[in-house]
């Protein structure tokens, strides 16, 4: 009954009330048949509400509790995006490194590789490694939607590591790609 009520409230754009229904299922009835669906619905609503701390907690809880879920990789991707939004670059780096190892055949592997490079860049202490990761990304995923952004980060990483020729070469490529 709570699951149906939560869905109805969600479809009526009464997200906070729906969240209470799904949270009640998760906390009071953790062994219910709808517990996994309720936990996922809670994640969807928290993402919609942009409640980053709660979303981070729920996504990691879901990944630990429902290791056999069909949508586990989707939730993992969302968890990574939450870490990016939180700006915890060390955690982002470790998380995306793990995703690449756990899901090497994923349709989102380009995204995982890109964010691994971004996290390495944002940590700010190993620009050579960031350059290496962005070079690998650009070589492996030339048709990715994130190619231009990766080229920009690559140029900046070259610049910040005092490789001005590499930075200039990378920025010329970014300009040429952007104008076409």
Task: Describe the sheet with the most strands.
Answer: none
What is the number of strand segments? 0
Number of helices: 10
Round the Cα radius of gyration to an integer and report it. Answer: 20 Å
Average the pLDDT over all residues and give the rounded result: 86
Low-confidence stretches: none
What share of residues is helical?
A: over 70%
| Distance from first to last alpha carbon | 55 Å
Structural class, from helix and strand content? mainly alpha
- State the order of secondary-structure elements, H for helix, E for strand: HHHHHHHHHH
General shape: elongated
- From the structure provided, what is the oligomeric state, counting identical versus distinct chains? single chain
Beta content? under 5%
Give a structural overview:
The longest helix has 16 residues, at 164-179. The chain is mainly α. The protein contains ten helices and no strands. The termini are far apart. The chain has helices at 2-11, 15-28, 35-49, 52-65, 72-86, 89-102, 109-123, 127-140, 147-160, 164-179. The mean pLDDT is 86. 78% of the residues lie in helices and 0% in strands.
Quick tags:
single chain; mainly alpha; 10 helices; 0% strand
């Amino acid at each position: 009954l709570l699951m149906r009520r939560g869905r109805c409230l969600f479809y009526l754009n009464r997200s906070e009330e729906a969240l209470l229904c799904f949270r009640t299922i998760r906390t009071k009835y953790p062994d219910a048949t709808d517990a996994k669906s309720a936990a996922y619905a809670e994640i969807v609503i928290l993402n919609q509400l942009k409640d980053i701390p709660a979303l981070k907690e729920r996504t990691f809880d879901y990944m630990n509790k429902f290791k056999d879920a069909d949508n586990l990789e989707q939730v993992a991707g969302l968890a990574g995006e939450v870490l990016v939004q939180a700006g915890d670059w060390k955690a982002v780096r470790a998380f995306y490194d793990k995703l690449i190892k756990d899901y090497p055949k994923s349709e989102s592997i380009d995204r995982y590789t890109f964010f691994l490079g971004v996290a390495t860049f944002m940590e700010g202490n190993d620009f050579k490694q960031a350059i290496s990761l962005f070079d690998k990304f650009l070589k492996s995923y030339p048709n990715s939607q994130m190619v231009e952004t990766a080229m920009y980060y690559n140029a900046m990483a070259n610049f910040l590591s005092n490789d001005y020729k590499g930075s200039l070469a990378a920025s010329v490529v970014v300009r040429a790609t952007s104008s076409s």
